[in-house]
Amino acid sequence: MVKNLSEEEKQKLQVMEQEIKITKNMSRIKHKVAVMSGKGGVGKSTVSANLASAFAGSGFKTGVLDSDLHGPNIPQMFGMEISQLQCTQEGIKPLETDDGIKVMSTEILLPSNEPLIWRGPKKTGAIRQFLSDVLWGDLDVLVIDCPPGTGDEPLTVLQSIPALDGVVVVTTPHPVALDDVERSIKMVQALNIPVLGVVENMSTFKCPHCGEEIPIFGKNGGKQLAEDLNIPLLGALPLYQNEDEGGLKNPEFLENFSKIVEKIVEVLDK
User: Fold this and answer.
1) CATH class of the domain at 30-268
2) Contact 136, 94 (CB under 8 A)
3) 43 is in an annotated binding site
4) Is 39 annotated as a binding residue?
5) Binding site annotation covers 218?
6) Tens digits of per-residue pLDDT, 157-199?
7) Domain limits of the chain?
8) Which one, of 213, 238, 225, lies nearest residue 177 by Cα?
9) Is this structure's pTM higher than 0.90?
10) Do the annotations mark residue 45 as ligand-binding?
């Protein structure tokens, strides 16, 4: 006769069952790469979307998990039309871009511009459900866009994904951003997860009229950070006049990301 389980025992059993589902689901994905930054406003989601686009453009089956629950922008970065999620007995079907990139984000779940007012445990549960229940299928690369800081969401990503290949860290050259990004790097290192490299975003402002590049946020801050911490500098990206010129549609920007992806793939294939 099976004894009745206490609430605590039921919770432990649910956690164990979810761990098994996460492990099984993530095992179908060859490489998992998190994109982090200790500072908000450095263009982390832009980097995540462009990385995914560059991976897909290089022939990799790619997905993006938007774990920035309070500022979910990945679908918008891809210009996606938000449609209703399809849930089956097997799990949740992610949306797909025109290029076949699979996307999951709380932006898909919420009415337009509605805030997500959740505390830590609920946020942790949502991210883990994205890992366990979303039907990612067989992918070459899953890019995980993390929110800024070193709190619940990035910690959940780093601790919940089996065989996480590493983290790409995004910064601007500004000293304030560099201080916060260094904290994020030290968090990753404390968890014994590889830092794949630093992307210095907004390294210069490229004048749309004359083409001159102006270091409005400082010069070579990301490069110096990478050297100080003995981490590869994956690339330095200019700031464009507006999103249309500097986003996924800009050939020069995409070329820069293709070079960054080449460097990441070299590390992943070792």
Assistant:
1) alpha beta
2) yes
3) yes
4) yes
5) no
6) 999 999 999 999 999 999 999 999 999 999 999 999 999 999 9
7) 30-268
8) 225
9) yes
10) yes
